[in-house]
Task: inverse folding
């Protein structure tokens, strides 16, 4: 992690926030308290991430964007970029694959972001969710692109739709954003139908864009509270049905999981 790049970015973001009358998120305030020049690299990283998490989609100068892009692409390279060859194919259906890891390091044509109805990312500083991670590592360009889409739409994003943006600094070329159902641990038939529609909408968007690979996160199983086992079953069944209904569309589908628990749920569904 390049400390010089981080310090420049944090200094810019702190001054930008001050110019707009914004309070610093806690991690940034902590780093600035003793002077950014003496802050540790880790403290600067937490400050940077928290600042971009709360930054509105303001225009950014070219120097900032170039520095941010260099930092983020370097971090992703250090983490190690995964390709489809690193994923595990289903022995019963080679169109389907499983991969456990950080989706922000996966070089698929498209990755799926489990978004909220605002569609501009997670605004909670350092929140541990996929929406936060994808927006952080894609760069501030992603929030700006999403904000433009939402301004043109003029209303919150409905559940079970799909919007496509560039991936910017991510290894994935595109991000497909979908809003899953909020089940709160007690899914109804409507929630089940909506979850299946999320997968279909993303696959439709992928095919329409002429892409041949997509990596799905576990939609709605985080803070939206859809039970993991049932969600996995719906995901695999829906994807397999869509592929069977579109035999002329060449598509590789990766089910991306982050936890050992989720991996254990998907393996039997994929014959692994």
Result:
């Amino acid at each position: 992690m390049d400390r010089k790049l981080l310090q420049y970015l944090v200094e810019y973001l702190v001054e930008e926030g001050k110019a707009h009358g914004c309070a610093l998120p806690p991690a940034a305030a902590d780093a600035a308290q003793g002077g950014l020049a003496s802050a540790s690299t880790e403290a600067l990283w937490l400050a940077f991430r928290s600042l971009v998490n709360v930054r509105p989609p303001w225009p950014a100068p070219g120097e900032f964007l170039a520095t941010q892009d260099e930092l983020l692409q370097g971090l992703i390279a250090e983490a190690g970029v995964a390709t489809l060859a690193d994923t595990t194919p289903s022995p019963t259906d080679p169109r389907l694959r499983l991969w456990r890891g950080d989706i922000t390091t996966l070089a698929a044509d498209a990755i799926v972001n489990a978004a909220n109805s605002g569609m501009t990312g997670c605004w909670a500083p350092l929140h541990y969710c996929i929406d936060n991670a994808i927006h952080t590592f894609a760069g501030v360009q992603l929030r700006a692109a999403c904000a433009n889409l939402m301004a043109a739409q003029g209303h919150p994003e409905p559940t079970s739709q799909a919007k496509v943006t560039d991936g910017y600094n991510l290894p994935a070329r595109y991000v497909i954003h979908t809003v899953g159902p909020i089940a709160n641990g007690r899914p109804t038939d409507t929630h089940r139908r909506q979850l299946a529609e999320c997968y279909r909408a993303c696959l439709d968007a992928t095919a329409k864009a002429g892409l041949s690979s997509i990596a799905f996160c576990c939609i709605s199983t985080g803070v939206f509270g859809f039970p993991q086992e049932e969600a996995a079953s719906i995901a695999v069944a829906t994807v397999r049905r869509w592929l069977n209904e579109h035999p002329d569309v060449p598509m590789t589908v990766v089910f991306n999981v982050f936890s050992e628990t989720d991996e254990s749920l998907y393996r039997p569904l994929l014959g692994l």
Remarks:
- Residues 181 and 245 are 24 Å apart (CA to CA).
- The chain has nine helices and seven strands.
- The radius of gyration is 19 Å.
